[in-house]
Amino acid sequence: MELKSRRKFSKEFRLDVVNMLKTGNKKVTELSTELGIAESVIYRWYKKNHGNTKEEEKLSGQEKELRELRARLADITEERDILKKAVSIFSKQGNLK
To answer: How many domains are there within the chain?
Structure first.
């Protein structure tokens, strides 16, 4: 059995196909037949490029900020713990003298 190699399409090509759908000049079935691309692939391109609402985009921005803040908190917590250990070590050395 021969495996088909996966074709790669440029971003510009995918956007052109999505724009053809958006303008309503062609239907997915027509584009699929003309271009030799599976309908599911075209639907996926469309969803990826035009499926997000503004609320979803805003939410993803908030999620990104939350991830950044959590990473920063983890760094600061680690720094604090290191400083606590250093204070503990130096205070023990001071008692020995």
So the answer is: 2
Q: For the chain, report the end-to-end CA distance as a whole number of angstroms.
A: 80
Four-point Cα dihedral 51, 54, 59, 62, nearest 10: 130
Per-residue pLDDT of the chain (97 residues; tens, 9 = 90+): 566 677 888 888 888 888 888 887 778 898 889 888 999 998 998 888 875 555 556 667 788 888 889 989 999 999 999 999 999 998 887 766 5
Q: 37: domain range?
A: 9-51
Q: How many CB atoms lie within 10 A of CB 15?
A: 14
